[in-house]
Amino acid sequence: MKKILIVDDEPNIVMSLEYLFKKENFEVFIARDGIEAIEIVENNMLDIILLDIMMPKVDGYKVLKYLKDREDFENIKVIFLSAKNKIKDIELGLKLGADKYISKPFSTKNLIKEVKQLLKN
Amino acid sequence: MSSFLVISIIIVYLSAIFYVAFWAEKNSKSKWVNNPYVYTLSLAVYCTAWTYYGSVGLAATSGLKFLTIYLGPIIIIPSWIILMKKIIKISKGNKISSLADFISLRYGNDRFLGALVTIICVLAIVPYISLQLKAISETFNVITNHTIFVNTIINDTTFYIAILLGIFAAFFGTQHTDATERHKGIITAVALESVIKLVFFLAIGIYVTFYLFNGPSDIYNQVSLLPNFESQKSINGLQGGFNWFFLSILSMIAIMLLPRQFQAAVVENEREKYLKKAAWLFPLYLLLFNVFVIFIAWGGNIVFHNQGVEPDLFTLMLPLKSNHEFLALIVFLGGFSAAISMVVLSSLALSTMLSNNLIIPYGFLQKFSKGESEQNMESIKNIRRISIFLLIIMAYFFYKSFTLDRSLVSIGLISFVVIAQLAPAFFGGLFWRRGSSIGAKFGIIIGFLITFYTLIFPFIIDSLIINSSFVNEGLFGIHFLKPYELFGLSIFEPVPQAFFWSLFLNILVYVFVSVYNIGTYRERNFAEMFVDNSKYASLHEDAYVWKGEAYVKDLKNILNRFLGINRTERALNLFFMKYKLDKNSQFADARLVNFSEKLLTGSIGSASSRILISSVIKEEEISLTEVLNILEETKKAKDSNKELQERDKQKDEFLDTVAHELKTPITSIRALSEILLDNDDVDFETKNKFLSSILNESDRVNRLINNILDLEKLASGKEKLALKKNSIKNTIEKSIDSVRQLALKKEIKIIDEKVKDANFLFDEDRIQQVIINLLSNAIKFSPPKKGKIVLKTKINKYTVDVLIEDNGKGIADNDLDSIFDKFYQAKNQTILKPKGSGLGLAISKQIVESHNGKIWAKNVKPNGARLTFSLPINKN
User: Do B830 and A12 touch (CB under 8 A)?
Assistant: First the structure.
């Protein structure tokens, strides 16, 4: 069973994503801010993270940087999921090392497709 | 030594110098050419053949007086640096190519003034150049053992040398039409010659002091036995002291105003920071040059005692007397270097003045304004080339007919005094706004007339050996008008005396005429720019010191004629780019007019460029106060432009945040409904949960949109407040009622016992909105069950304060002001995002402020926040 972490501070977005990936047979972890996310990353061998950018305490960029600084996390895929959808935001996200950048609002079918695609490689 | 050998050596030496100049011109970007050492050494063009031979001559006859010529510059070096910085800045900013241009521009592009300065410089420097030719000729005769003077030009080596120097100056001096372009070839050659003359002079100094004699004390002991010794080692009491003082001042002026010094220090200056190196290196050079002067002079006095040898030639005669011919040749070459560097640089500087300030503005403008660019550029170069030759030929004939039997120093000092007449106009122009063109002209003319009367005329009479009672008896036998003791002033020697009177009257006239005649608006504007150059430096072109009408096409036509089509195109493109102007615009603004004028100034001088530009523009007079007002307005326009940009940026940020805040609920709605649509097997409970979330998020979107519109309405003042006399206590009660359910749910107490009543004008609905907002926030941040919210009112004389206090965690100190910003909470990453639009406090602030009230937040002890808003009581 693949392990997915959903990082977002909007309860309803979390709720929908949780339902979606449980249905696809993922083991789902949930974090409401960057600090919780890092705690979960440290304690579980994750496969993929869906990461919001604008979050309280520690934002998505910082979480990604934390992951990139550690060799033992190099196999974890990261998808940015953000309402910031200007070209320069997307470029910045990918430059920092995210595997995908999907802007909100997103199509759930497409999201699942992208996640599966990433995990296949 | 045979003259054939010496001539061959001269030719080899000159070829070497030509080669160096050629190399430097080719490699003008090399660091061997562009460095502070070359700059400093080029300043040493100050030391001419006069220094080389004349100082010794002066020291041999008059003791320490020679030192003044070098002490002056050394003393003034610290202030020289500061002045030079200012002068260089102004010159570069305005493309000034000579002293005449500088003075003429300062007094409003005055054509006559530029020409006057040029004439003064030519009068002063041509004899000075002839001095150098004389030195070359005399030393050549000494070293080749010619005892008879050559009287025909054809047989005179000096004539050919003069022609060669003319070719050198003309070739390397006119590589560019723009006279402000640096002449790397000439400057590098001059710097090299400065090294040569110093090394060779030190060599002869060491030879005399330590080889011919046994060190300085030996020379001193021997010379002290000679008669007249006392006068040779002192400055001759108080009277001598005065002479010393004025000669030092004179040389201070000379170091800045001699055309060749202005050329080397200002026009040829590549970087301002070179001055720092020159500040200590140049005085050091002068000191080194003077170390051995007195010993060579004394040595000569001892060796040639009572033999009738010209003291000016001691430097050369000492090695010859001991049959050290090679050393004598070295001395000759050192003096030759000193002479030719002065001749070349002076004739270059003077030719620029002659062409740009005299010949072109008075004779060729008409022709140029019709000619083609290449033809014009060639003509300008030819005018300069001819000027160079003309100057050198003039100097040659002056030397032939006048200076043969005069000492080097006397003519040199006369030149200094003539040049010094420019000092009041020059320095006054730098520091005194009121100095006017007419004052400068009168000052210079009076000063020159006095110099002529007290120095030049007696000198001419003297050298033509006309027996005249003029010097001893005064004009018409009036003793009061004796040229060397004018107005009965008898403590000075002739030169300091002439200097004193000429400069005194020059300054007097300059100041008085300037005070009584304030000059035109143009010169006042330039005065402002020169005196306060640091203030205007940044806006030179930008300064709208001009008002009128001009067309780009006309300006372009003029520029084409002098710069050629390509250079004009390039320059204008740069200009349009720099100021982000439309390339195809038809009308020229003040900046373009100033810019074009400056572009031309380098080629044809400031006066001509002004005349040409004026011919195509329609100009209105503009007073200084107007100029300042315009400058002030442009500054204001710039400021308000900045403000607009800032506001634009804020608006962009606001829209970004709004978009983000709207997308968040829409994301949830979209995801949840897509799941419901795609999955038929969602269980009943989940389905209900999803649907009610969709409903909540839809409400959130709606609320957000209403809030934004609300805020916009309030901020733009589109919605008028419904001001009525209301009871504040009543309004507070109503507000509490509408949040009571929320508070009960969290078991939070609301205490309103201390609320006192007041009736005054306010919009009840809006104030209720503020209170509800503040109460909801308080409920949100108070701990459940233990939460306590206290409401109070304070009735003051002019205001009513409403205070709402909770016992939550309080607000971080640096957030106290910013919580009222739009979306502050959404943007601020450290606070947990609350439910709400992030606009509540911004709207509250807007409402309170539309009532002319104030709202602020404070933390209270031990914990909790207090939000207060204060409304004015309108007595009407």
Answer: no
The residue of chain A nearest to residue B662, with distances taken between CA atoms, is: A83
Statement to judge: residues B232 and B339 lie in one domain:
yes
Q: How many of the other CB atoms lie within 10 Å of CB of B19?
A: 11
B674 touches chain A (CB under 8 A): yes
Q: Does B206 reside within a domain?
A: yes
Label residue B616 by pLDDT band (50, 70, 90). confident
Q: Say how many domains are in chain A.
A: 1
pLDDT averaged over chain B?
82
| B833 touching A (Cβ < 8 Å) | yes
Q: What is the ipTM of this complex?
A: 0.92
**pLDDT score of B504 more than 60:** yes
Residues B644 and B746 occupy one common structural domain: no
Domain that holds residue B762: 724-872
Q: State the pTM of this model.
A: 0.63
Q: Same domain for B140 and B32?
A: yes
For A77, the enclosing helix (H) or strand (E) is: strand A77-82
Distance CA B437, CA A12 (A): 83
C-alpha span between B435 and B420 (Å, rounded): 17
Nearest to B671 among A13, A57, A83 (CB): A13
B705 with B837, same domain: the answer is: no
Q: Look at residue B826 in the predicted model and tell me its pLDDT.
A: 44
Helices (H) then strands (E): counts for chain B: 36, 9
Q: How many CB pairs under 8 A join A and B?
A: 71
Q: Among B373, B397, B421, where does a domain finish?
A: B421
Alpha-carbon span B816 to B795, nearest angstrom: 24
Lowest-pLDDT choice from B75-84, B110-119, B665-674, B735-744? B75-84
pLDDT of B170: 85
Same-domain check for residues B652 and B610:
no
Q: Is residue B505 part of a domain?
A: no
Residue B834 C-alpha, separation from nearest chain A C-alpha, in angstroms: 10
Burial of B187 (0-12, 13-18, 19+ CB in 10 A): buried
Amino acid B623: pLDDT: 55
Three-state SS across B117-143?
A: HHHHHHHHHHHHHHHHHHHHHHHHHHH
Residue B446 contacts residue B509 (beta carbons within 8 Å): yes
CATH number at B731 reads 3.30.565.10
Residue B579 lies in a domain: yes
Band of pLDDT at residue B365, cut at 50, 70 and 90: confident
Are the beta carbons of B675 and A108 separated by less than 8 Å?
A: yes
- Dump pLDDT digits (tens) for B791-828: 999 998 889 999 999 988 888 777 777 788 777 654 44
The residue among B716, B743, B758 that closes a domain is B716
Q: Mark whether B545 and B415 lie in a shared domain.
A: no
One domain for residues B666 and B764 = no
Please report, for the domain that includes residue A35, its CATH number. 3.40.50.2300
The per-residue pLDDT for B509 is 93
Q: What percent of chain B has pLDDT over 70?
A: 87
